[in-house]
Amino acid sequence: MFLKSLDRKILVVLSFSVALVIVCIIYFTNRRLTQEILDEFRSDSKESMTIVASGMRQTMASGNGRLIEKQLLDIKAENTSIELFVVDTDQKITFSSEIKSLNKFLKDELFGKQIREDLTRGFQTGEIPDELYEEKVEERRFFMHAHLMQNQADCFRCHGSDKKILGAIILRKPVDWKYASLAELRNANIAISLLGVLAIIILSHFLVTRLISRPIRTLAREIAELPERIADNSIVGKSRVSRNDEIGDLQRAFHYMAIELYEKNNALHRANTDLADANKELESFAYSVSHDLRAPLRNIDGFSKILMDDFSEALPDKAKHYLQRVRNGTNRMSMLIDDILAFSRIGRTDIEFKKMPCSAIVNSVLENLSEEIAQRNVAVTVGDLPVINCGPTLMQSLFLNLISNALKFTRNTEKPEITIGFDKMRRLIFVRDNGLGFDMKYHDKIFQIFQRLYLPEEFEGTGIGLSIVKRIAERHHGKVWAESEPGRGATFFIDLPTF
Q1: I want to staple 135 with a disulfide (CB 3.0 to 4.6 A). Which of 41, 112, 120, 468 is the partner?
Q2: 3-state SS, residue 416
Q3: Can you point out the beta strands (E) in 383-489?
Q4: CA dihedral 24, 26, 30, 32 (to 10 degrees)
Q5: Helices (H) and strands (E) in the chain — how many of each?
Q6: How many angstroms separate the Cα of 148 from the Cα of each of 114, 129, 145, 194?
Q7: Alpha carbons 294 and 292: distance in angstroms, whole number
Q8: Which of 450, 347, 334 is nearest to 394 (CA)?
Q9: What span, in angstroms and rounded, lies between the C-alpha atoms of 491 and 386?
């Protein structure tokens, strides 16, 4: 939830990046300073070892132990921070600036294992690595450096000439204060860095909110309110755009789009209004014409019937034939008028939507058609149908037309079958038959008013039934279409709101 906001995402990424950079800077700075401490001690210890070794060579050559001890103590007095140890090849401390360490072994003075191993190897080979050793004694940290004492001619008097190495001088120096200074500097850098990160976060939050998030939120709110503003005729003009950067371009593009949508919506609204008015006028015209045609049509049919009944003996057969054709035409025209009235009535009727089991509507239609179904021995299967939101009367008319259409076009089928079911995967109701079928290139034509694929002499009807089906489906915010093959029946699919 926290990271859904754009400015918070930017702040998190920015803060993480800055923190990572600062951590890297502190790490490498601390590493560099530590290396400087090591290099400084190494340089100092080498210098000190050179001075001490050259100063003590003469004294040690005399073999005067008291004089050696005095010289070490003098060096200690001059530089209290260092400790000097002179050890023999057995790693026993023979002379020391620390009185308490005399005659002890290195291992007893907590010297590190590494320096003792290197000294043992150096006494044998005559060489010792130029290493800086570190150890911790009683919570104190020390650096150490070792220098081998070569057996020279002036030492032969006391030590003989057999030994190549007489021992080693070890310098040990505490570095606690250096590390303390380093830790203090590191802590100061961390504190300053934290303050810097906090300042960057606050400044970035202010800038991101003011320059990015706030304008984008405003634009998003305007986009969400656009449909309502278009309906209320309250479109925001270009005067709301006050920036010349990318956000301003986005605002400008939105306002141009909003104005264009407003204009197109008004044009579409006017076109829909004009179309609705035209449809109402057409429906009214069709209703009026159809209604007004009834009276003269009844007169034609009535008078032709009178002629047939009362003057049948006086009329020749040819006249009777013409009168019968007149009566057949009036009956067909009466059917057309009834269908036109039914079709126009669909658009004029207010629909009271109800949740109805589709199976109840289908069963009611099948009951009305039960006599024809029984006489022709049609096998009708009704599957598990859903609940639909519909106008019951109109929906009954829809299924009546579809099932009647299926009955009509299975008339010449040896074993007629009709299936009404529900495709759960596609959420579609369907009416399927095994009748005559049709070519799919006419699939749109069959739903057009008065369009027929067969002659009236072959199959009765006016060609308006499927047009009524389509109109009813559209009024229920659905649609209907057909799939078929000649000679293999047809399937009509109805897409309606289901539950």
Answers
A1: 112
A2: coil
A3: 387-390, 417-423, 428-433, 479-484
A4: 60
A5: 12, 12
A6: 16, 10, 10, 49
A7: 5
A8: 347
A9: 18
Give me the amino acid identity at 416.
Answer: P
Q: How far is CA 312 from CA 167, 303, 322, in A?
A: 157, 13, 12
Could you tell me if residue 110 is left (phi over 0), alpha (psi between -120 and 50 degrees) or otherwise beta?
left
Tokens of 75: 């060096």
Nearest alpha carbon to residue 242 among 210, 220, 274: 210
3-class SS shares of the chain: helix, strand, coil, % to 5: 60, 15, 20
Name the DSSP class of 110.
T
> Which residue carries 């057949």 as its tokens?
328
CB atoms within 10 A of CB 131: 13
Q: How far apart are CA 208 and CA 200, in angstroms?
A: 12
The DSSP secondary-structure symbol of 81 reads T
Rounded to a whole number, what is the distance in angstroms from the first to the last CA of the chain?
A: 34
The tokens 């109840």 sit on which residue?
360
Q: What is the per-residue pLDDT across 257-307, written as a single tens digit (0 to 9) for each?
A: 777 777 777 788 788 777 777 767 766 766 666 666 667 777 777 777 787
Q: Name the E strands within 334-457.
A: 354-357, 379-382, 387-390, 417-423, 428-433
- Asked if residues 76 and 83 have their Cβ atoms less than 8 Å apart, the reply is yes
**d(C-alpha 105, C-alpha 96), whole Å:** 12
- Picking from 10, 166, 156, 21, the residue whose alpha carbon sits closest to that of residue 86 is 166
Task: Give all strands (DSSP E) within 123-190, no chain letters.
Answer: 133-137, 140-150, 165-174
Q: Which helix H or strand E contains 55, and what residues bound it?
A: helix 6-62
Are the CB atoms for 431 and 491 separated by under 8 Å? yes
Half-sphere exposure of 248 (CA within 13 A, CB side): 7
In this predicted structure, what is the pLDDT of residue 234?
65
Is residue 492 within 8 Å of residue 486, measured between CB atoms?
Answer: no
Contact partners, residue 304, CB within 8 Å, separation at least 6? 323, 326, 327, 330
| 418 exposure class (CB count in 10 Å sphere: 0-12, 13-18, 19+) | buried
- pTM to 2 decimal places: 0.45
pLDDT tens sequence across 374-404: 998 999 999 999 999 888 888 888 898 899 8
b/e sequence 79-100, b meaning 16+ C-beta within 10 Å: eeebbbbbbbbebebbbbbbee
* Residue 252 · residue 237 · CB < 8 Å: no
Q: Report the distance separating Cα 447 and Cα 479, nearest Å.
A: 11
How large is the angle between the packed helices 6-62 and 65-78, nearest 10 degrees? 150
State whether residue 233 is helix, strand or coil. Answer: coil
Pairing of strands 379-382, 417-423: parallel
